[in-house]
Amino acid sequence: MKSENTVRDMTATAAGERQIESYRQMTGEQRLAVALDLHELSCDVAREGIRRQHPGADAAEIERHLHARLKLAREGAKPKQA
After folding, report:
1. Residue 26 CB partners (closer than 8 Å, separation 6+)
2. 5 or 10, greater pLDDT
3. Residue 8: domain span
4. Residue 16 CA to chain centroid, in angstroms?
5. Burial profile 53-75: b = 16 or more Cβ within 10 angstroms, e = fewer
6. Vertex 19, ends 79 and 40: CA angle to 5°?
7. What is the pLDDT of residues 53-72, one digit of tens each?
8. Plot region of 8 (φ>0 → left; ψ -120 to 50 → alpha; else → beta)
9. N or C terminus of the chain: which is more exposed, having fewer CB within 10 Å?
10. Per the domain annotation, does 82 fall within a domain?
């Protein structure tokens, strides 16, 4: 029971540090698998949002909207050139 209290009472900073330590103990392949799983999860969440915004959209249209969002995100992450 004590370990449950430790996790439940953990601060966000401590949880973040614990997660980073877990990542450091993983192999590169394991970290890549986690990253790909998180990417797929975020795409699934975005698809749900798109379905709510466009209830009549078919699967292909939802994917087009998703790809447009991903493109915007990539372009927003690029540094501005002078």
Report:
1. 34
2. 10
3. 2-77
4. 15
5. eeeeeeeeebeebbeeeeeeeee
6. 60
7. 999 999 999 999 999 999 99
8. alpha
9. C
10. no
Radius of gyration of the chain, Cα coordinates, nearest whole angstrom: 18
16-31 pLDDT per residue, tens: 999 999 999 999 999 9
Q: Is residue 45 part of a domain?
A: yes
Residue 11, in any domain of the structure = yes
- Let me know the angle formed at the C-alpha of 34 by 28 and 35, rounded to the nearest 5 degrees: 90
CA 28 to CA 11: how far, in whole Å? 27
Look at the chain and count its residues.
Answer: 82
pLDDT of residue 8: 73
What is the C-alpha separation between 28 and 51, in angstroms, rounded? Answer: 35
25 falls within a domain: yes
Q: How far does CA 21 lie from the centroid of its chain?
A: 19
Q: Work out how many domains the chain is built from and give that number.
A: 1
